[in-house]
Structure formats: C-alpha cells, structure tokens
Amino acid sequence: MIFLGFFAAYCGFIYNEFFAMKMPFWHSCYTRGIREDQGNRPIFIQEDECVYPFGIDWGWKITNGDELKFLNSYKMKMSIILGVIQMTFGMILKGINAIYFKD
Does an H or E element contain 91, and which? Predict the structure, then answer.
C-alpha cells in the first residue's frame, strides 16, 4: 500500500495534477497572446528555449495542441518504464529472498 501511494503521488507530480486540478509548481513555458487577425482570439505561445524542470508543463493543456495524442503516448511510455522498474525490483527481491533462505 505504501508503494501504491508513493507511485500515485509520483504520477501526480509527472502530470502536475492533484485530483485532476493543475498544480503550477513552476512557471509555465507558455504565455498568452492575442491574435488580431482572428478577432482578438487568445492564443498561447511557447517561449523560446524554455525547458520545464519536471513533468508536463501545466500550461500546455490550454494551448491549441493535440492534447489527447500527446498524453496517451506519454502515459503508454511511462507505464512501460514504470512496469519494467517494478518487475526488476521484484526480481531483485526474489533473488535476495532466495539467497537468504538458501533456496
């Protein structure tokens, strides 16, 4: 249960969310601008050479980007990486138990 809570909090930090609400830990790399040629419609522009320190930029969700494709591929990659880490940790624990019990 402790590991479940730890990894749930870790995934929350990656997505910068807490109960589906954005948590702006750092300054966003997106700034709001106005598009005058389309009736002063607001747009969001990414700052040049801006690197978000950790996880997904919380301001990215309000841009005009294709959020669903990006987040689905991100989640798939993260689930594979975390799954491999968890299985490796389990094999290490099994090896330690085998050595301890001389099995």
Answer: helix 67-100
CA–CA gap between residue 77 and residue 14 (Å, rounded): 13
CA dist 45 and 64 (Å) reads 10
Distance between CA atoms of residues 72 and 103, nearest Å:
42
Q: Is 58 exposed, middle or buried (0-12, 13-18, 19+ CB in 10 A)?
A: buried
Average pLDDT over all residues of the chain: 81
Distance CA 102, CA 54 (A): 43
Reported as a single tens digit per residue, the pLDDT across 28-53 is 887 777 766 666 667 777 778 888 77
